[in-house]
Amino acid sequence: MSSNGNSTAKAEVRDLSFYYGDFAALKNVSLAVAEHEVTALIGPSGCGKSTLLRCFNRMHDLYPGSRYDGEIRLFPDDVNLLHKDIDPVETRIRIGMVFQKPNPFPKSIFDNVAYGLRILGEKRRGVIADKVEKALRDAALWDEVKDRLDSLATSLSGGQQQRLCIARTLATEPEIVLFDEPTSALDPIATASIEELIIELKKRVTILIVTHNMQQAGRISKYTAFMYLGELVEFGETEQIFTRPKKEQTENYITGRFG
Ligand SMILES: Nc1ncnc2c1ncn2[C@@H]1O[C@H](COP(=O)(O)OP(=O)(O)OP(=O)(O)O)[C@@H](O)[C@H]1O
């Protein structure tokens, strides 16, 4: 079902269909997400990339009228994330998400990163401070903010805000981080620093990223899934997808003939 070679699967999407009301936005999608690698989801607007990403942390549960059919199995526990007995709130801690537009809370830099830890019930100030520092270091932001942790998060630049959102996600030690076009609102320098960060982060977490930027997928991902009209057209190593696509639709998209 996948061409992941020797990689260990962190998650497996199995025959997943997803419906917004009667509309099937995903149709029988199956793919494996390799542990400690970056997997990119690409395809033209409306093909279902964000919908697939949002299934992983049960974001759709927040909206009535949506329905999942199929499974997303998370390893090593081998649980189906879409099962009705799985708590979506717990899932969102294990599987973090970073959005297109940086969305810090209107709180201090420190409180943004401490937020998830406090939700989890951590009350020890020293532990919170240590974890906040670690998350900010892991998000390559510590040196820039260590002297202004009490400043409002919204006083940071766009690129810094996005790294803060990454630190906020990392603080609760997720296993997978979902990135939904994380650099589309950023300038080239901020984009480069987020890309470097993603490459660094894969040592610790498994990464799934939606991107419109083909060069970005080429630079940072090991595997690429090409989607079209809710279906997974082709999935494989990024290098193969970009240089020797097996399907004509993939080739047309890669070469800019549509989308
Ligand atoms: N809340 C919703 N209700 C109904 N239909 C939706 C909803 N969100 C998305 N859709 C539809 O589902 C399909 C897939 O949308 P999705 O946002 O996943 O695509 P995408 O590939 O991420 O697109 P883009 O690159 O433009 O963000 C589209 O046809 C879209 O119109």
From TrEMBL:
InterPro entries from the UniProt entry: AAA+_ATPase (IPR003593), ABC_transporter-like_ATP-bd (IPR003439), ABC_transporter-like_CS (IPR017871), P-loop_NTPase (IPR027417), PstB-like (IPR005670)
Signal peptide: none
Gene3D superfamilies attached to this UniProt entry: P-loop containing nucleotide triphosphate hydrolases (3.40.50.300)
Boundaries of every ABC transporter domain copy: 11-254
UniProt entry tagged with the keyword Transport: yes
Keyword entries, A-Z: ATP-binding, Nucleotide-binding, Phosphate transport, Transport
A UniProt-annotated Pfam family: ABC_tran
Single annotated GO MF: ATP binding
NCBIfam families per record: 3a0107s01c2
Name under which the protein is recorded: Phosphate ABC transporter ATP-binding protein PstB
